[in-house]
Write a structure and sequence with these properties.
Number of strands: 9
Protein name: Glycosyltransferase 2-like domain-containing protein
CATH class: Alpha Beta
Largest sheet: 9 strands, mixed
Number of domains: 1
Order of helices and strands: HEHEHEHEEHEEEHHEHHHHH
Structural class: alpha/beta
Keywords: Membrane, Transmembrane, Transmembrane helix
Pfam families: Glycos_transf_2
InterPro entries: Glyco_trans_2-like, Glycosyltransf_2, Nucleotide-diphossugar_trans
Number of helices: 12
């Protein structure tokens, strides 16, 4: 029986919370600004309150500017003051470290990866609050399906302002949340959302860690699928987090810019992946969206006019994404890409990371 078939069966009898697992997990949170302190504190507390506790919580403090030398010292000091001595009421070991590589988000993730020791590494954004069973739900998938290598969870929007009626549900990816085209139950998927993703530690090391700053989640998903098979990357919507959506991300300006610039930069990201990169998921998404106005028109006639507006905005989003992709192709052809600062871990760093776990096991 194929893994896909087994997963489809399992979705009808999904593992209930409370099932024991022999797998261990570390949680990683990357952060860079004091402006999100309250959200960061919420994220940390949610990681410490899991029904299955992580062995380590690794908080990596960076900066909006790239480079290991750029660190938000005020944020670092406050993190150390708040969590530097661990928590008396929690068995979780808390590490607070600074970014050690040249890029931004991807470099912070690689910094944390070298400090992990557990079987599974779960990544949580600093503006997301994990449900109490978030980690347990992910580990249940790994326990049930040994061939699954990466598991994503559902980031559900936590709005800072009322959601506009025109905003299409297919485009909640714009602010890093679960969108309508994703599976509504446990199933393979091509793209995990970095807000709430996880993977087996050995698999992340096998692909050399993280190779991107802007598209760290997409890059990891594609590289793992290329190495281990498409069914090895799965989405478990029951592993939920609440992802903060500030008011400025609910504007038309943010919407169209995100559609354009994300897809412009994807061109370079796919090029960096080599054989692992493909735009199949993007093409299927665009096809589904372009079929949307017809049923939306029927809905409008039957008393739901907002659906037609959403469908038309979604079509405009696809058009802006296509324009971005064409612009990215032109940039790539002319050699005008931005410098890639996060390029993965070296072979020596991967060996060091593997040796660190062996040393712990032998101790």
């Amino acid at each position: 029986m194929s893994l896909v078939a087994k997963q489809s069966d399992a979705l009808l009898t999904s593992a209930a919370p409370g099932q024991p697992t022999a797998l261990s997990a570390d949680v990683v949170i990357c952060t860079y600004t004091l402006d999100r302190w309250d959200l960061l504190a919420r994220a940390v507390e949610s990681a410490l309150a899991q029904t299955v506790a992580p062995e380590r919580l690794i908080i990596v403090v960076g900066h909006s500017e790239p480079g290991a030398h750029n660190v938000n010292e005020d944020l670092l000091g406050r993190c150390r003051q708040e969590w530097g001595n661990g928590r008396a009421d929690s068995p979780v070991e808390i590490l607070i470290v600074t970014r050690r590589f040249a890029g931004t988000k991807g470099s912070s993730l690689n910094t944390a990866l070298l400090l992990t020791r557990a079987d599974v590494i779960a990544f949580l954004d600093d503006d997301a609050e994990a449900a109490p069973d978030w980690l347990e739900r992910k580990l249940a998938v790994y326990s049930r399906y040994p061939d699954v290598v990466a598991v994503g969870g559902a980031p559900l929007p936590d709005y800072g302002a009322p959601r506009p009626s025109w905003f299409p549900p297919d485009f909640d990816w714009v602010f890093g949340c679960h969108y309508r085209s994703l599976p509504d139950r446990l199933a393979p998927t091509q793209h995990l959302i970095g807000t709430s993703m996880s993977a087996r530690r050995d698999a992340i090391l096998d692909v050399g860690g993280f190779h991107a700053d802007w598209h760290d989640d997409m890059d990891l998903s594609h590289r793992i699928a290329h190495n281990f098979g498409a069914d090895a990357v799965c989405y478990e919507p029951l592993a939920a987090v609440r992802h903060w959506v500030p008011p400025e991300r609910l504007t038309w300006s943010y919407f169209w810019r995100r559609c354009f610039y994300v897809n412009r930069s994807k061109v370079g990201a796919f090029a960096d992946m080599g054989e692992a990169g493909n735009i199949g998921a993007e093409l299927r998404f665009a096809f589904r969206v372009l079929l949307g106005p017809a049923p939306a028109l029927v809905a409008a006639v039957t008393g739901h006019p907002e659906r037609l507006g959403q469908a038309l905005v979604a079509v405009l989003g696809v058009v802006m994404a296509g324009c971005g992709y064409i612009a990215g192709r032109m940039q790539l052809a002319r050699g005008r890409r931005a410098e890639v600062l996060t390029t993965g871990l070296s072979a020596a760093e991967v060996r060091q990371a593997r040796a660190a776990v062996r040393a712990v096991d032998d101790a």
